[in-house]
Design a protein that fits this description.
Elements: E1 2-7, H1 13-22, H2 24-28, E2 32-35, H3 47-55, E3 59-64, H4 66-70, H5 72-88, E4 91-96, H6 127-150, E5 152-153, H7 155-161, H8 179-182, E6 188-191, E7 197-201, H9 206-213, E8 215-219, H10 226-239, E9 243-247, H11 258-269, E10 270-271, E11 283-287, H12 296-303, E12 309-313, H13 324-328, E13 331-335, H14 340-351, H15 365-382, H16 395-407, H17 418-433, H18 441-458, H19 465-478, H20 485-494, E14 498-500, E15 506-508, H21 511-524, H22 530-537, H23 543-555, H24 559-570, H25 587-590, H26 608-625, H27 630-640, H28 642-667, H29 674-699, H30 702-722, H31 731-761, H32 767-777, H33 780-794, H34 799-806, H35 813-829, H36 834-844, H37 849-858
Parallel strand pairs: 1-2, 1-3, 3-4, 8-12, 8-13, 9-11, 11-12
Antiparallel strand pairs: 5-10, 6-7, 6-13, 14-15
Helix pairs in contact: 14-15, 14-16, 15-16, 16-17, 18-21, 21-23, 23-28, 24-28, 27-28, 28-29, 29-31, 29-32, 30-31, 31-33, 31-35, 32-33, 33-35, 34-36
Length: 859
């Protein structure tokens, strides 16, 4: 049954009656149902039923006249009708009743109007002829609507659309993972024809954006998720009433006419309707792997008649087509890597596959622990803990890391760690997927290992063709090649483990591959590579060394490697003692502790989900702004002068050394002696605490405070003077502002240092180690670290224990405030019931928002 909605002005009601009379044969056949507001029952509400009928309609007839164009209600219905045309592919038919300015309406003018050529009904000499013309046009739309309603996707193709490929059998909780179980819409960047970025586009709006841009080119790396995106877009378009047709022909390079490809693909994908009966404007061609097409120009030429289409390729700026006009019709999008909030969303979807979806699990702290733990593992595997990362944060890589982590099984004597296994599994997956035989894999791995080490010794991440040929000749002279060199290199470049540029340079496609294999060579030849290890470990401020160091520890358990790292850690900021943060050390800070912003427990309306959402949005912005490269850091150091450059370099080396030490104990938590774990944990903590001492030494002296306060006062005054506001603060008020800013920034340095220690060396598998070391140290600083680790990694707030510790005489007010901030942050990010919040408030002395407001009012 086709539902037809009539939108008209009541002053044209006579024309509506004439329309219904002349279209009665359609109704008599029992295939259509007309609806207009005269069907409303008197006494009922007017707008909701009209809106519902409009939403449910298959065809909307607009009775266009000057009265219609002047009616706000009619204009609203018209607007919604065109929105439904784009979102649900309904038919919209303007029927021009009488002479009016309908051609000045941008939406109506683009649609085929009735009677033919937009000649008005009232201008016909024979009005019956006009209505018959309307009837004939409406009959065509009804016929097309009914044919589309019978069109269904074949079961075999539905299964293909839900096929998640290599991840189909990779989940422990579900026998077969469907694509819709794990799909997260990526975001895009829209570029103009000159390659300039125009805007960033959210993934959920791609289908809507499709109708805005109509012809779309989407580009992305081989693992960016283009094919999965096209599958999900296909399903979305079909649900909206369109006829998407997916064309793939990588093997035969799209030879032949694209019209034949469309027809053949349609027949494979649909049933219930023949291709020639489809309304042309409802067909949306979706071309995957367009970069494999031999004659790209003829394909685009053959697609030109389709108003809306999607073409997916590997590079939107290298299509090599002579006719620029053909390409210029397309809007160019590239798929972005997943930002932190989308990575979080993807991980959460993966973890809830096969589990109950009653919604309660989201609020459960066990679920938060599961998500946080897996998120940290993924971030570390992507290389985000040290910088921009070494693996693109595309869904394939993230989910492969998670599935490898779940499936990790190894003999006890095997060297590689669980995280190292994830990288190895990715590489094996690449090779096996592309037909490399099991007995050939060792040859491929050995070649890649030697290739990486050759680049490492040359200090080059790209080999020019001549250098690559030299390497290859040397390799063939030293190793028995069980796979022909040409076949091996062709395979590695085609599956993009090794990348060959258009100027014949060779390099690893992704950084993690280079680091993995360079570290593999060093680990397998540790005795002869001692100088390499020493040089790497003493220069961890360089990203390459830090990443290779982590990969060496994945491959190798040798004490020599760990000793080298610990020795270097001992030397960092070694002229300072580790901060203890006791009363003696922070007495100067306690005098100003009232300057610190008051910490407050969240109220009932401030849910963990809201706080986590804000935290993820902040993380998105931080990662987006993390644009400086390592070379820019070094250049900035040089501009600061020798003294400051040395300090900056030492800071970077210290932070990255601790991260490397943290990765070691997190990955070896079950295979390393407890004494060794404690040694590494304690020395890693000491590095940060020594840095903190160097900072405290600067801000504790009256001279140091005065210099910084003078600078802040001048800077704030300058900003205020440049402000357009007429009423400006006095000099004394500016000084008070500078003082408050000074002490709050100092406080956040202490708080952030503790937080950095917690996340760098904390782990749910190292709780016992953390407690042993921190209790033995028995300082306010160590207690802050211990409870930070317990809260984040065990979701455990030991209220009584904390209350006892912070009330000891050597626990200063400043350290108490740091502890309270940690607790408030924990309560904001986790589900804490009302009774437990009250217990925290009473025992530890943290006010709730309501209590704080009452205190302010009473003053």
């Amino acid at each position: 049954m086709t539902k037809i909605f009539l939108s008209y002005s009541h002053k044209d009601e006579e024309h509506v009656r004439n329309f219904l009379t002349h279209t009665a044969p359609l109704k008599n056949e029992g295939n259509v149902e007309f609806w207009y507001d005269r069907k409303l029952i008197p006494g009922n509400e007017l707008l909701p039923p009209i809106d519902k009928q409009l939403e449910d309609s298959d065809v909307v007839c607009l009775f266009v006249s000057s009265y219609f164009l002047a009616s706000p209600a009619c204009m609203k219905e018209k607007q919604r009708a065109f929105e439904l045309y784009h979102s649900k592919a309904i038919f919209v038919i303007p029927i021009i009743i009488s002479k009016c300015a309908w051609l000045d309406d941008k939406e109506i003018q683009d649609f085929l109007a009735l009677p033919t050529d937009g000649k008005t009904v009232t201008s016909h000499e024979d009005v019956h002829e006009a209505w018959f013309d309307v009837y004939e046009g409406l009959k065509i739309s009804v016929d097309q609507s009914q044919k589309l309603s019978r069109l269904t996707i074949k079961e075999s193709f539905s299964e293909f659309l839900e096929d998640s490929g290599l991840l189909r059998n990779a989940h422990s909780q579900k026998e077969e993972v469907a694509l819709s179980d794990i799909f997260v819409h990526p975001e895009f960047e829209l570029y103009d024809s000159e390659g300039e970025l125009e805007e960033e586009v959210k993934g959920e709006t791609l289908t809507e954006g499709l109708f805005k841009h109509q012809k779309v080119l989407i580009a992305g790396d081989s693992q960016a998720g283009k094919s999965c995106l096209l599958k999900m877009t296909y399903k979305d378009l079909y649900k909206r009433g369109y006829v998407p047709i997916l064309v793939e022909d990588k093997e035969h390079s799209f030879q032949g006419k694209i019209s034949n490809h469309l027809r053949k693909s349609f027949e494979k994908q649909y049933e219930g309707c023949v291709f020639d009966d489809l309304p042309h404007q409802r067909i949306i061609p979706i071309i995957d792997d367009f970069h494999y097409a031999r004659d790209k120009e003829s394909i685009l030429d053959g697609l030109e008649s389709y108003d809306t289409q999607i073409v997916a390729t590997d590079d939107i700026f290298n299509l090599n087509i002579r006719n620029d006009l053909l390409v210029d019709q397309y809007s160019r999008f590239t798929i972005k890597e997943l930002k932190p909030s989308l990575r979080h969303k993807l991980i959460k979807k993966w973890l809830t596959v096969g589990e109950s979806s009653d919604g309660l699990m989201i609020q459960d702290n066990d679920m938060y622990q599961k998500v946080d733990s897996n998120l940290e593992f993924v971030e570390a595997s992507l290389g985000k803990v040290l910088g921009k990362g070494i693996i693109p944060s595309y869904p394939f890589f993230i989910l492969s890391i998670l599935s490898s982590k779940d499936a990790y099984q190894k003999p006890l004597d095997q060297e590689i760690t669980s995280q190292g296994y994830c990288y190895q599994a990715l590489i094996y997956m690449y090779l096996k997927k592309h037909g490399v035989k099991s007995d050939e894999i060792d040859s491929y791995l050995n070649f890649l290992t030697e290739f990486a080490y050759s680049m490492f010794t040359r200090k080059e991440v790209v080999l020019q063709e001549a250098d690559f040929v030299t390497f290859l000749e040397g390799y063939k002279s030293r190793f028995n090649m069980t796979v022909e060199a040409e076949k091996l290199i062709t395979t590695l470049t085609s599956i993009q483990i090794i990348s060959r540029s258009s100027v014949n340079d060779y390099k690893f496609k992704h950084d993690y591959l280079y680091y993995f294999f360079a570290a593999r060579h060093i680990s397998e030849n540790i005795s002869s590579c001692k100088d390499d290890v020493s040089r790497i470990m003493s220069n961890l401020h360089k990203n390459e060394n830090a990443y290779i160091a982590i990969f060496i520890t994945h491959h190798c358990k040798k004490d020599d490697v760990i000793d080298e790292i610990i020795l270097n850690a001992y030397c960092l900021f070694d002229k300072y003692k580790p901060a203890v943060l006791d009363t003696k050390e922070l007495s100067f800070f306690d005098k100003e502790v009232n300057q610190i912003a008051q910490e407050v427990l969240p109220n009932g309306s401030e849910t963990p989900e809201k706080h986590r959402h804000r935290h993820l949005e902040q993380h998105d912005q931080e990662e987006k702004s993390q644009s400086k490269s390592e070379d820019e850091d070094i250049q900035q150091d040089e501009e600061l002068g020798d003294e400051y450059a040395a300090i900056s370099k030492d800071l970077r080396r210290s932070i990255k050394t601790v991260e490397v030490m943290g990765r070691i104990i997190k990955n070896r938590s079950g295979s390393m002696l407890k004494a060794r774990l404690e040694e590494i944990f304690e020395e890693a903590m000491n590095v940060h605490l020594r840095i903190l001492t160097s900072f405290i030494n600067i801000i504790e002296t009256p001279k140091g405070q005065a210099e910084i306060l003078d600078f802040l006062t001048q800077r704030i005054d300058q900003i205020i003077q440049e402000s357009p506001k007429k009423q400006k603060p006095t000099r004394d008020e500016i000084k008070r502002m500078a003082k408050a800013l000074f002490w709050n920034v100092n406080f956040m340095v202490i708080y952030s240092t503790v937080k950095k220690i917690v996340h760098s060396i904390g782990s749910e598998n190292l709780i016992g180690i953390a407690e042993e070391v921190c209790n033995r140290r028995n300082t306010p600083a160590s207690h802050l670290v211990k409870h930070g680790i317990l809260m984040w990694y065990k979701k455990n707030v030991r209220v009584e224990e904390i209350a006892t510790e912070i009330n000891k005489s050597d626990f200063p007010e400043t350290a108490k405030r740091v502890m309270k901030y940690q607790i408030v942050n924990h309560c904001s990010m986790h589900s804490i019931n009302y009774k437990d919040k009250q217990r925290i408030a009473d025992k530890i002395g943290i006010p709730t928002k309501r209590l704080l407001l009452e205190q302010v009012k009473s003053k």
